[in-house]
Design goal:
By secondary structure, this protein is mainly alpha-helical. About 55% of the residues lie in helices and about 10% in strands. It has four helices and three strands, in the order E-E-E-H-H-H-H. It has helices at about 45-55, 55-75, 80-105, 115-135, and strands at about 5, 15, 25. It has a three-stranded antiparallel sheet with strand order 1-2-3, with no helix packed on it. Strand 1 and strand 2 (about 15) form a beta hairpin. Helix 2 (about 55-75) runs antiparallel to helix 3.
Length: about 140
């Protein structure tokens, strides 16, 4: 079993015994320092980092909110044509925002499988049946 024996006169070196019993001198002062601690980011800093990384998603959210508010105001002013137009633009802005979000996260990282275990079992069963049909 490994263990550490240190001499009382100096704490700079210690003798380590490996599992096979061979001694090994270790210089404690030369060992690596612990990694530098990172300060946690505040909410505003996290939000700003996200905005810099994915700028089109917040712009799409603001556009969606604008079209929604404008459409609701048009409903209040009893202007059905403008209200309908704003609601259609809102849906378009929502679609564009969702599209940008999917672009940023990457469509290839999204799992589109429905019931993946069932699909894998079904595929294995079909391959097994095809293997029996050939024999």
């Amino acid at each position: 079993m490994g263990g550490i024996v240190s001499s009382p006169s100096t704490m700079q070196t210690s003798k380590t015994y490996c599992d096979d019993g061979t001694p090994r001198d270790v210089n404690i002062a030369a060992s690596e320092a612990p990694p530098e601690m990172r300060r946690p980011l505040s909410f505003e800093q996290k939000l700003w980092e996200k905005f810099k990384k994915e700028p089109l998603v917040p712009i799409g959210c603001v556009a969606t909110a604008y079209f929604l508010a404008s459409g609701i105001k048009s409903f209040q002013n009893q202007d059905p044509r403008r209200a309908q137009k704003m609601m259609r633009l809102r849906v378009g802005a929502q679609f564009a925002t969702l599209g940008m979000f999917m672009y940023y996260i990457g469509v290839d990282r999204i799992n589109f499988e429905v019931a993946p275990q069932y699909q894998r079992a079904r595929k294995a069963r079909q391959q097994e049946e095809a293997g029996r049909g050939e024999n």
